[in-house]
Amino acid sequence: MFLEFTVGNYLSFKEQVTLSLEASSVSEYPENTFSAGKHTLLKSAVVYGANASGKSNLMLAFMDMRRLVRDSAKMSSTDTFRVQPFLLNTYTATAPCFFEILFLVDGMRYRYGFEVSTTKVHAEWLYQVKVNAEKPLFIRDGEAIEVSAGKFPEGRGLESKTRANALFLAVCDQFNGAIAQKIMKWFTYCNTLSGIDHENYRAVTFRLLNDSGCRPAMIQFLQQLDLGFGEVQVQEEEFSPEKLPENMPLAVRLRLTSELKGLKLYRFKAMHDMFDASGALVGKAAFDLDEQESAGTNKIFDLLGPIFDTLMRGMVLVVDELDAKLHPLLTKALVGLFNSVETNPNNAQLVFATHDTNLLTYGNFRRDQIYFVEKNKEGATALYSLVEYKEDGGTVRKDRSFEKDYIQGRYGAIPYLGDFSKIATPWLENKKSLTT
Q1: Which SS3 state, helix, strand or coil, does residue 126 take?
Q2: 30, burial (CB in 10 Å: exposed 0-12, middle 13-18, buried 19+)
Q3: What is the domain-level CATH number for residue 132?
């Protein structure tokens, strides 16, 4: 379970900001929360903000932390970390990036984080919470790694085997450390998606459609969306160079022909009802998903696998631009899968960025589920939730029209649009002078 994520000195985040999925004391939509030991957690959180305000950077920060943890063991001594600090300040431009996450594994709370630059790990720490006391399992400061022998024996003797550009947690995982393996598994099963570049996720959808336990729920969901079809067929065929685009460069064609030779390809067909002249149902028509269905339908299909995989495992899904290419009602339906008790019995959690303001009215979000990002005059991103926002000395009331207030700029986090007439008037005058 995901409790909170903190990032600092990374891309547009100069100071440390925290996104928390621990529920506050607000009372609306209790079904959007669940109990995990002594914690009450949110099933989802949505992030709003103007273009270039830092929404995608927040999603990318989580994705990059996950990538750094998972890929650390694969790096050589000469490899570098792909991270970028906040560059609009002379101090932060050369300082390390900060990442920290709090989560639950087997009922135990862990706090894990690190500070890294492109060339090395500057600091790293792992804490475990039993009852109310937080105890360090290991603390790393530069080249020095201090391991708690009683609480983290799996780390003893591995300090000297850890490179400057390797995470100590990943080294412990390589040597089959029990706690390290649990934490590595948690990061592995967290799904992170792009709502724009989503084509690569289709393999997960294909796998789950072949899973007898998951297929009925996925097909039922597709039917409820009223996309024009309620069944999907998978056609298996041998790869043929003839199926490659005609305008593809010869060198690329030859390479793909060699790499794909002998492999099986899969084409998905959406089964539509076919009617005769009198309107009677006479059969089914198979539409190629890529060539004959809309971009939004393709996105729904691509994301369906990772979404249901997350729901089945009760894990975490982080999505940037969830609403891209989708009708607002489709976005609402996807979010509803997580906030529903019926479709989310394993308490999976969703964090996503969007511009779809309809969700502020129809998404049934609690105030502590709604986050905003906004840049200050120094170009640094701030993050705050609606329940934290203060107006007239108090909190925002739950009966406010959140969408209307947001569009009017009441909560900030919207683009400043100047007077376009100041652009149009000189242009029109210049055009008039040229024609006279």
Answers
A1: strand
A2: exposed
A3: 3.40.50
Range of the domain at 219: 197-313
Strands (E), 73-194: 97-105, 108-116, 121-130, 133-141, 144-147, 191-194
- Give a yes or no: residue 383 inside a domain: yes
Domain match, 161 and 282 both: no
> What does the pLDDT look like over 169-209, one tens digit per residue?
999 999 999 999 999 999 999 999 887 877 778 778 888 88
Rounded to two decimals, the pTM is 0.85
Residues 6+ positions from 10 with CB-CB distance below 8 Å: 57, 61, 64, 83, 84, 85, 86, 97, 98, 99
* Same domain as 228, residue 85: no
Alpha-carbon distance of 194 to 191, in angstroms, equals 10
- pLDDT one-digit tens code per residue, 38-73: 899 999 999 999 888 899 999 999 999 999 999 998
Please give the share of the chain, as a percent, with pLDDT higher than 90.
52
> Which pair of tokens denotes residue 386?
């609606």
Token representation of residue 56: 């995608």
Q: Is the domain of 206 the same as that of 270?
A: yes
Amino acid 292 reads: Q
408: in domain: no
Cβ partners under 8 Å of residue 361, min gap 6: 401, 402, 403
Do residues 65 and 186 make contact, with C-beta atoms less than 8 angstroms apart? no
102 and 34 share one domain: yes
Indicate whether 236 and 163 sit together in one domain.
Answer: no
- 308 and 179 together in one domain: no
Those residues whose C-beta lies under 8 Å from the C-beta of residue 95, and which sit 6 or more positions away, are: 9, 85, 117
**Encoding tokens for residue 168?**
């100590």
Q: Buried b vs exposed e over 70-81: b needs ≥16 C-beta within 10 Å?
A: bebeebeeeeeb
Same domain membership, residue 183 and residue 90:
yes
Instruction: Name every residue whose Cβ is closer than 8 Å to that of residue 266 and which is 6 or more positions away in sequence.
Output: 206, 234, 235, 236, 237
List 101's β-bridge partners, or say none: 5, 112
Strands 370-375, 381-385: pairing is antiparallel
Mean of pLDDT values over 201-230 = 81
The reply to whether 254 and 289 lie within a common domain is yes
How many domains is the chain built from?
Answer: 2
